[in-house]
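User: Hi! I'm working on a homework problem where we have to compare a predicted structure to a textbook description. Could you give me the structure for the chain below?
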Amino acid sequence: MRIRSYPLLLAALTLGASVLPVENAEAIPAFARRYQFSCSTCHAPVPRLKPYGEAFAARGFRLEDPSQEPPRATYDTGDPTLQLFREVPLALRLDGYASIKDDVKAETDVEWPWAFKVLSGGPLNEKISYYLYFILEKGGVEGLEDAYLQFNEPLSLPINVMAGQFQVCDPLFKRELRLERFDYEIFKVRVGASPVSLTYDRGLVASWTFPGAVETVFQVVNGNGIGRADEEESFDEDGLKNVSLRVARTFDRVRLGVFTYWGRTHGADVENRTYYVGPDLVVNVSEQVQLNAQYLERRDDNPFFALRPGDEWSTRGGFGELVYMPRGQDGRYAIAALYNNVRSDDPLARRESLSGTLSYLFARNVRATIEGGRDIEREAARFSVGIMAAF
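Assistant: Happy to help. Predicted structure tokens:
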């Protein structure tokens, strides 16, 4: 960066420090309020989930022992089939940054608020729960992103079913829970004119665990994201459904999974077939260190919906992520490093980036970050000081 940028860097650091509270925040998010738990029960650090938090979410945001559910959280209506909240479980999340970007020219930017979310979720009865959030991001209204109902063991079957809109990549790695601003690019990338990616979509998810602790997740989705309905009041642009299957097994400190996805999309009178396949890996080296890795191969036979398609289009890549918590999961510090690399026959789908992020908890629900990274593919850099508060 040019010399003139250093005073701006100092200004960004000063702005970042000025908005950080020096005392613990008093407000806590909805689930912590309901159960009177610390955020550290499920998160390390927020928004990253501990195994306990993952199990809590999988049960539909309820405790393992039903007798520990707080009786005063709901009204006694005299109707055993109705569980009525005394208070609607709401939580808020606010993210903001001050950044210096070295792209065509060095640029400073106050990105506040970068994102504002209104979240709600919880059990509707002993088998049904819900979760949703509404987001305003980058100065505009994005609307509902996650919004689903979850049915645990319907008809006493050993499966859980989820219906609504969600991220296809959630069984692999949840983008919303990462510590970095830089994203998991292999999940976001689109090829040609195809609408298919592994981010938000609408559909159904069924999950179950085979004997031997083999976790299985099957999804059926529209395959074209979560845009508005068209003039015919249809969300699915072509009526075709895409499917995915992920199988994973945990061995002590290692979780190894394999993901496959297959689907078709129509454009005009032609069709594109898309499939993914690849492994994912989580290694809990110790209480302080976790290594995450994802690799995927993607193939499209006609991503530009040409009348005379040519050769198959190949996209491959993934990411590696290292998370280090110097004082363990209950400490205040966390350091994360993320490397993305995606190669594709479509030049616009190529990605390569490297970033490092330092997080510090001023409170269990107030996280400050300092992040520096470089978009290697686009020869651009960004340095950010930011804060995330949930209350």
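For your comparison, note the following. Residues 1-28 have pLDDT under 50 and may be disordered. Residues 56 and 62 are 6 Å apart (CA to CA). Good luck with the assignment!
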